[in-house]
Amino acid sequence: MRKPFIAGNWKMNMTVASGTKLIEELKPLVKDANCDVALCVPAILIPAMKKAAEGSNIEIGAENMHWAKSGAFTGEISADMLKDYGVKYVIIGHSERRQYFGETDETVNKRTLAALEAGLTPIVCVGELLEERENGKTEAVLDRQLKVGLNGIEDITKIVIAYEPVWAIGTGKTATDEQAQETIAYIRKKIGELFCPKCAEKIIIQYGGSMNAGNCKGLMAQPDIDGGLIGGASLKTDFATIVNFDK
Ligand code: PEP
Fold first, then answer.
1. How far is ligand 1, taken at its centre, from the CA of residue 232, in Å?
2. I need a labelling partner for 24 at 20 to 30 A (CA). Which of 46, 104, 181, 209 fits?
3. How many domains does the chain have?
4. Protein residue with its CA nearest to atom 3 in ligand 1
């Protein structure tokens, strides 16, 4: 019932030349995918990567956006600017933005609502720190991130949630299949409580955190894991192996 969705997050990597080369290599490798496929890239690369991905099943997404329509926000990008280039997805609230750029649950909420209003699909990232997991606070952290970050959303099925335990991002330390399944099932249950049980069945929830060509099959076999948000492994053709997890 839920179509799997594998998205890459290039973070602050790649140039026009290296990004175009990778997309050219990926296109034939992912063309028969049974899932939705996207690469979220640095804003300045969007036009060139859109062109490189033309005629393929790879959607190009953004890594962040501001909530205001326009104005005095030096260095920021608006939803309308993303739409100008045919962008469909935008990552919101990645843990690196929370950690290094002062993103809070409140600003995640503003960005998410603005993305939805513009007709974009936000990929909203949630997840606990190592210390929070070790102190048994994972559920409390997720409760807060979901309640505040998703406040006021009319149709929750229009967003994608990425569960990304912060301790697993870029560390090579993946959550076990069971840990990821258990936590994502908890998120789904919580969406049912905060919104509606039917929406909880429909919403796409990805796992993110050192997902790679070797561990993707086990993670994707879990009943509540609908996809992945892939950092490091999306910078190489390994991304295609993840996209083809079911083959
Ligand atoms: C991410 O950036 O969202 C991510 C999961 O990174 P990595 O796959 O490198 O851990």
1. 6
2. 209
3. 1
4. 231
